[in-house]
Specification:
It contains 11 helices and 15 strands. It is an alpha/beta fold and about 350 residues long. It is globular. The chain starts with a strand and ends with a strand. It binds zinc ion (2 copies). The site of one zinc ion has 9 residues, from helix 2.
Length: about 350
């Protein structure tokens, strides 16, 4: 098969022929019809992820058709249209038994712990636990954008954030996750304040339902701006970018008893990030992390997509062939364009 391969971190990747994957006994091989390009792929390529062994094929948000099925798989057949959460669970640890596959103790992530979906085929583990059927009428490009960004935002806003109609929700960082969060919170009836340094991203946020926008590049104290716009602070606030600055701004923009959700990955998994914890005590804030979304909790989100209430398709701004993926991967470091770019390996 053809795949995007890199031999060294930070050096140009290339499209080349590699052996086709074979399914594990509990796994499947999926023919990749669409796979999103995400900043996490860039982090992996730069060597920021200790799970990656070289040579490597990136790609973790994908949709496609089941091509081959391991002997132990009972729920899926070749020809099924599927997608997966970017966190693939084992199905048998204590967290999985509790229904919390998104924090599985033996999780695998295509494009990180093994070769990913910037390829014509990808192997996925524990198919019965992790595959999600792509509804009829949903394009593969749209389904691919669910796996990492949209589902991650949905869990952050709805499942962890417990958004309610009428609440003020602040979203710091309007990339793929942030724009998804804006759309999901607005659809839930919340009033959304979007924060970003890019006028283009804020324009999209406005289009996706943000009631207010704050340009962080020209606003000195974004937390103060959020508090003012929301009459005292957000009920719910997300750091959807992942930086010490946006994390602190998110916490500082909350009202009393507000909820901060850290969903943007912070730069150093082994390091620490300063958090205004004194404010968390004084105002009785809740500080929660959010990490992907379990496959078995996709149904309510897919129903809202089917009803047209949520429009993940609007996030897909362009599709490119596999040959353009190496160049596009390199560009992800220098200020990501707003919206989601999708690779179609068979185009
Ligand atoms: Zn991602
Ligand atoms: Zn598990």
């Amino acid at each position: 098969m053809r795949a995007v391969v890199f031999e060294r971190f930070g050096e140009p990747a290339e499209v080349r022929e590699v052996p086709d994957p074979v399914p594990a006994p509990h796994g499947v091989v999926v023919r990749v019809e669409a796979t999103g390009l995400c900043r996490s792929d860039w982090h992996g390529w730069m060597g920021h992820d200790p799970d990656i062994a070289l040579p490597h094929v990136p790609g973790h948000e994908l949709a496609g058709v089941v091509e081959a099925v391991g002997a132990g798989v009972t729920g899926w057949r070749s020809g099924d249209r599927v997608t997966v959460p970017f966190v693939c669970a084992c199905g048998s640890c204590a967290s999985c038994a509790a229904g919390d596959q998104q924090v599985c103790e033996r999780q695998t992530q295509p494009g990180f712990t093994h070769w990913g979906s910037f390829a014509e085929f990808v192997a996925l583990d524990h198919a019965d636990v992790n595959l999600v059927a792509v509804p009829e009428g949903m394009s593969f490009a749209t389904a691919a954008s669910l796996g990492c960004r949209f589902a991650t935002a949905y869990r952050a806003v709805v499942q962890q954030g417990r958004v309610a109609a009428g609440e003020w929700v602040a979203v710091h960082g309007c990339g793929g996750v942030g724009l998804s969060a804006v759309m999901i919170a607005a659809a839930a009836g919340a009033r959304v304040v979007a924060v970003d340094v890019s006028p283009g991203a804020l324009e999209l946020a406005r289009k996706f339902g943000a009631a207010e926008c704050v340009n962080a590049a020209t606003t000195g104290d974004t937390a103060a701006a959020v508090r003012e716009l929301s009459s005292g602070g957000a009920h719910l606030s997300l750091d959807a970018l992942g930086s010490p600055t946006t994390c602190a701004a998110s916490v500082n923009g909350l009202r009393r008893r507000g909820r901060h959700i850290q969903v943007g990955l912070l730069p150093s998994p082994d390091g620490t990030t300063p958090v205004p914890l004194a404010r968390a005590i004084a105002l009785e804030l809740e500080l929660l992390g959010s990490h992907g979304m379990a496959a078995h909790t996709y149904a309510p989100m897919l129903e809202l997509v089917h009803a047209g209430t949520l429009r993940p398709d609007l996030l897909v701004t362009s599709t490119i062939p596999l040959e353009e993926a190496p160049g596009a991967l390199g560009e992800m470091g220098a200020g990501v364009g707003a919206g989601v770019r999708v690779i179609e390996p068979w185009r």
